Amino acid sequence: MAEVLLSKSIYWKKASINAALRGISFTAPPKVYIALYTSNPTDADTGQEVTGGGYSRQQVIFGEPVVTDRRAGVQNTADVSFPIATADQGMVTHIGIRDAPTGGNLLYHGAVKTPRTVLINDLIRFLVGQLKIDEG
Asked: What is the pTM of this model?
């Protein structure tokens, strides 16, 4: 899939502001996972995540933040591949970064540049540098 720019969810906006400015502790998740969606998850985490057909969230690893012109950004440092689809999974239009392999909280989300219908035997993969988070 093509490059995806991600923005913060309501959950993550509140958690980061509370931790930085109000002294309310936040425990960072030990791992984060990419989720595929057939509709926009929105800042409020209301989208429809893919289910069935061998789908499962996959761990994603981000590099150290780089600050350029007052903007901080990170990108994935390893390819992320989903299991080969064992059934049709629908049109993937968005992705999310979540703090658990199931359930949990949405941290970031964004639209894929080229939505794709995932059919049986398809493989979805994001190459190094295709998942980017940019904060100003």
From this structure: 0.93
